[in-house]
Amino acid sequence: MKILLVSANQEKVPYPVLPIGLCYVAESLEKAGHQVRLLDLCFERRTARALDRAVKEFEPALVGVGIRNMDNCDYYYPKNFVPEAKRVVAEIRAATKAPVMIGGSAVSVLPREMYEAIGADWAVVGDGELAAVELAKAVEEKRDPSGIAGVVSRGAEGVRVNPQNRVPALDVNTPPRMWRWVDPQRYMKFEGVYPLQSKRGCSLKCIYCTYTNIEGKSFRMKSGEEMAKEIEEIIERSGVRDFEFVDSTFNVPESHAIDICDTIIRRGIRANFVGSGLNPIGVSERLLGKMVDAGFRSLICTAESASDTVIRNLRKGFTRADVENVARLTARAGLRTLWIFLVGGPGETPETVLETLDFIHRHTAPGDVSYITNGVRIYPYTALAGIAIQEGLVRSQEELIDPKFYFSKALDRKWLRDTMIRHSRQDPRMITSERSQHPVIPWGLRVLSMLGVQKPFWRFVPAFNRMMRLVS
Length: 472
Ligand code: B12
Fold this sequence. Notes:
Elements: E1 2-7, H1 20-31, E2 35-40, H2 47-58, E3 62-66, H3 82-95, E4 100-103, H4 105-109, H5 111-118, E5 122-124, H6 129-140, E6 151-155, E7 158-161, H7 184-188, E8 194-196, E9 199-200, H8 211-215, E10 220-221, H9 224-238, E11 242-245, H10 254-266, E12 272-273, E13 276-278, H11 285-294, E14 298-304, H12 308-313, H13 320-333, E15 336-343, H14 350-363, E16 369-374, E17 376-377, H15 383-390, E18 405-406, H16 413-426, E19 430-432, H17 440-450, H18 461-471
Parallel strand pairs: 1-2, 1-3, 3-4, 4-5, 8-11, 11-12, 13-14, 14-15, 15-16, 16-19
Antiparallel strand pairs: 5-6, 6-7, 9-10, 17-18
Helix pairs in contact: 1-6, 2-3, 9-10, 10-11
Bound molecules: cobalamin (B12).
Cobalamin (B12) binds next to helix 1, strand 3, strand 4, helix 4 and helix 6.
């Protein structure tokens, strides 16, 4: 059967990201014997025209739309991507009578509401590899797919959301071989780095996070050998050398991260890993040493806070001492770090905010940058959503399809914003999420990329801040 897959994501902040999830689905459908094409709308100005042309040329019997983002999680410059995704599906409907299935992380976060809002025939929640193949088979055989695991459908009794159908281990998946489906080089013209996934699942308990809802709590791994082979093929086939692991956290569990690094080192792969997520839980000097030897050039450390009170309330499972230790170890290893902070959660006060700022100023290395988000996006079916409902900030999980933000009652929002601005004037290594929405940034990234400057480009945040101060 002919299946057209469409990547609806057009977001360019912080940079355009390759549709890895949709490419996994494309590989699985093809392996199941279907004829598959992928239309990437990321750089497409006139989506209706592109969709119409693709449908007329290919005449698909089923269309699958990948929806990555619901919103940009930014309190000050909110962007809601749901209307955009809805428009794409309407444009597909205008071009073809083929049924439409949707999937992607946005759908997994809130399956029922996204399904209803977008107006697709079916949705897939969680991993797409198995569910999309079974759904396509049912469509081909003109069977009702509503009983298939991972499928969301509409029936006489309303919307039915079936439990996810997760792949047992990543080794069983065909690698997403993205150069076959999209043009990776277009992405590389921005800060684009090639995404790799070495595992799915997250065992952590952070109260605001969606990862366990999307990927589950238990780890499903790809072995070091399989990962290394995948990287070698990417380098050979697409010429890309800048990578980032999109695992929820790269270093948990540490034994797996070490296996990945050891295999990369043993096979002599020459690549740059520029943006993998590091959680301060149990970061060892041994792991960082291996990461450097494997080609890791920089890290993204999701500390979220440097106040013991807030870290405890967010159930991060580490302490400020651990965060300080990571700062020491990464500096010693020569690994530049982008520190991620999430300010305003339960129990946050002006004092705890100042503790985090003190950490940034005194403990992060001169080459490091800190990225700060004010206000915590309340995601449905998380512990934070429960707290917000209890405190009367939101009425139900369902309304959280529209972005709502948690701000501790002990914080004055104006004070918080002014404080962040004042501190980033003193310390230009800080950037707030609202500042990162500046329209000049995508252009700056393109220029740096054209000049062949080494990634990560966030190391130019201090220069950007100084330049902005001159012009404003
Ligand atoms: C790594 C990551 C990043 C990296 C990306 C690096 C890179 N080079 O790709 C960075 C830090 C840059 C980033 C940025 C952003 N991110 Co992000 N990111 C993630 C993370 C951790 C993993 C995404 C990923 O690649 N997964 C791996 C793939 C294989 O999984 P998948 O996409 O879900 O695909 C599977 C299924 O969904 C399904 N599927 C996918 N498509 C389709 C289509 C069909 C038809 C079907 C049937 C199935 C299907 O099958 C796939 C295979 O099983 C997720 C959280 C998570 N654990 O999912 C957040 C997440 C996707 N990000 C999110 C957001 C909001 C953003 C930003 C908007 C925020 C920001 N301002 O920084 C930007 C947007 C960037 C952009 N241009 O679009 C949200 C999206 C939800 C929401 N609120 O809208 C998530 C879910 C995190 C969260 N806050 O809950 N992100």
